[in-house]
Amino acid sequence: MLGAAQAILALVFVTGCATTPPPGLPPELPPGLPPGLPTTPASALVLGEASPPASPLTLRDAYPFVALGEREPVAGAERPGSDGALVSRWEVLDRSLEGREVREVREERTTSGPGQWRVRTIIDGHTEAIEERTIRLDPARDGLVLAESLQHERGVRVVMTPPPLAMPSDLAPGAPFVQTMGLRMPLLENPRRIRAQGTGDMTLEHDADQPLTLDGRVIRCRRLREVFVTAVPPARAVRTTERWFAPGLGLVAERWREEVRVLGVVTERTERTIRLIPAP
């Protein structure tokens, strides 16, 4: 059941799967954790001083690639752009046994309806995905919706009802955006069998403007804070994520921290950091 809670938490749009530090590199345990408790350390970001946000954070600010998906396709024709075209790429900075972990967003062509993209987490140089998510524009809900999540390593599909907004059309400074959903995890090989189910509460807030340094360049960013609480009895998990968005670049960096409790006892703490891979 603990693994089920972790799988559900792994599905949020710009997060990744946890990996285990290599032998010989013992993790630094956060204060209060007993020896031997599994944890994944996070790489530090070079951050400047945060200040109150000056203006709303819009969907186009956060994910510039959605602009193409907002165009109406010609009747009977595919949308502009090419199927499978790479629109953004990030790398996970933390240590991994398997190799360099990469997250990428690729366009998916549609003949009707809003734009759609596939988010894949892979080990660089490999073709098989660790996980895949489908995101799409939803004009009725005025934002970018997480439509589907496939957790290949765990062999499950994560179904959230209603599908959550990964990002609304805009977030006013300091105004929390709260969503509540049901969670269900059917097996990929046997969809009639449900591995686990529970509930989730997600809060998004544009809480600060903050500069960070990327490849020696200081970039002014807008910071989005997300708190995602899931209850998959007997486990309860809290993941706090900070994302930094820059004009014209979109998501520049992300850092998340997660704590899992079973029957009130902390069983795992994990931290991860990702950063944008600049286009050549």
Biggest β-sheet description: 12 strands, antiparallel, barrel
The span between the termini is 43 Å
Strand portion: over 45%
Q: What is the percent of helical residues?
A: under 10%
Sketch the topology as an H/E string, one letter per element: HEEHHEEEEEEEEEEEEEE
The count of domains is 1
Count all strands and give the number: 16
Oligomer: single chain
User: Helical region count?
Assistant: 3
Q: pLDDT below 50 for ≥5 consecutive residues: which ranges?
A: 9-42, 72-81
Q: Quick check: average pLDDT?
A: 79
Shape by Cα distribution: globular
Summarize this entry quickly.
By secondary structure, this protein is mainly beta. The chain has helices at 2-9, 59-62, 66-69, and strands spanning 39-40, 57-58, 86-92, 101-108, 116-123, 131-138, 143-151, 156-161, 165-168, 170-171, 177-186, 194-214, 217-232, 235-246, 250-262, 265-276.
Question: Would you spell out the secondary-structure blueprint of this structure?
Answer:
Layout: H1 2-9, E1 39-40, E2 57-58, H2 59-62, H3 66-69, E3 86-92, E4 101-108, E5 116-123, E6 131-138, E7 143-151, E8 156-161, E9 165-168, E10 170-171, E11 177-186, E12 194-214, E13 217-232, E14 235-246, E15 250-262, E16 265-276
Parallel strand pairs: 1-16
Antiparallel strand pairs: 2-10, 3-4, 3-16, 4-5, 5-6, 6-7, 7-8, 7-9, 8-11, 11-12, 12-13, 13-14, 14-15, 15-16
